[in-house]
Input
Amino acid sequence: MIDIDVTSSTPIYTQIVDGVKEAILKGLLEPGEKLPSVRDMAKLMTLNPNTVQKAYQQLEREKVVVTVRGRGTFISEEYKPRKDEDKMNEVKEIFKKGIIEAFYMGFDKQKILNFVKNLVEEMEGLNKND
Amino acid sequence: MIDIDVTSSTPIYTQIVDGVKEAILKGLLEPGEKLPSVRDMAKLMTLNPNTVQKAYQQLEREKVVVTVRGRGTFISEEYKPRKDEDKMNEVKEIFKKGIIEAFYMGFDKQKILNFVKNLVEEMEGLNKND
Amino acid sequence: MIDIDVTSSTPIYTQIVDGVKEAILKGLLEPGEKLPSVRDMAKLMTLNPNTVQKAYQQLEREKVVVTVRGRGTFISEEYKPRKDEDKMNEVKEIFKKGIIEAFYMGFDKQKILNFVKNLVEEMEGLNKND
Amino acid sequence: MIDIDVTSSTPIYTQIVDGVKEAILKGLLEPGEKLPSVRDMAKLMTLNPNTVQKAYQQLEREKVVVTVRGRGTFISEEYKPRKDEDKMNEVKEIFKKGIIEAFYMGFDKQKILNFVKNLVEEMEGLNKND
DNA sequence: GTGGTCTAGACCACC
DNA sequence: GTGGTCTAGACCACG
Output
């Protein structure tokens, strides 16, 4: 489901968190759907359960997911966007970094915008009807 | 010149690297201009010289900067963009991450594109009005 | 495993990098094989861990080696040669230097070529008899 | 006459030494010919006289050049190749380094040998009649 | 003066 | 356990 690169510099647990979020946006995971248990997920992806655990905890902290004791972990039914200043800055920094690196790869303004446009559309997948 | 957040999870030397690149794109640092010596920069930012050194070396590896023996470190006169596959993927992943987080903040497609557009123009320095 | 000459003018970390590359070409280190951990290697060679670290990082930058989070550093499974112009020039300069010095030792053209031929075969490890 | 790259990692004085040796082998500098004085050479190449001085001293140490007090510095009339073990090892190490890097650029044995052959012939220039 | 290397020792995140 | 970062302080080669 989620492809992990163990050699990447981004921690595995972060890759899981990002992967789950991406899958939800793409409609591959539906609100209310049950995620595999920590142990199953760990076996499935041949990862250390502690790593998966850490990812689930962060997903819960971000309210992307809720865990019901004894039943499992589920994609949140209704995700309420949080827009605090910290988050806003974080996102801004990410994009800034991307833009800087893009410029240094020789992209110009228009090329960057097209690049991002394509990515956004790819990400929206099938689940948004606008 | 460059503001460092010592509490950030991104390493200090990376913040320096990013900061220099950003300053160049914004026109705050001109090609050919001399950067403060490793020691001076370290004093200026109250960092250890080794940390600054590491940043300068990475900048040189990326050809953003050249060091002239015995004289110091200078912004490259002409930077030739190199776009290998790895770099391309890196940039893509950065933007993907940004887009995902933006969606989770409640942004829709158009809002994201505008957000990025503004950032790009801010980064371009003087070319704001095209 | 790798012999270091602390009196040499080539930095220790470079000697490690070269030593690892040589060991791989000679078949002494197999793709996928684990290198000693930074600390172990440092103890083994009575060096400071930072020095070994620097060598490992350069090897990773050159994709000779991959590091797997929490597990260690491994010889790359498949090394894809990258031959950018800079690298090409570097190699050319090395050989030029070697040739000049060889001439100054009284070698003629044929002697140099034989000398290099022997070295290449020595380096190739098992393919000595082709 | 000799082109210096001030950004190179090889010291400038070494580049001068190598350059002079190369020029001699190529026949651009004849035995007995006078080299520009340290000060002239420094002006000519816009270098620090100390740097040129250091280069000349090393050339003299290697007996490539002789300086006659009050007259100047001249290319040695008869260069007697010295082949001590140290020099031999040095040259061997240079070639080994070159071969390793060539392999890592994807060259095979034959390609390396051809590469070196071409370089040798280029270096021999016009002054050797074999 | 410049950058480059090395040691010592500490702390941290990740698996 | 692993690698990664940072500080402090020292020494060196180069120009």
User: Anything to note?
Assistant: Residues 85-126 of chain B form one domain. The helical segments of chain B are 12-25, 38-44, 49-61, 85-104, 109-123. The longest strand of chain B covers residues 65-68. Chain B has two domains: 12-75, 85-126.
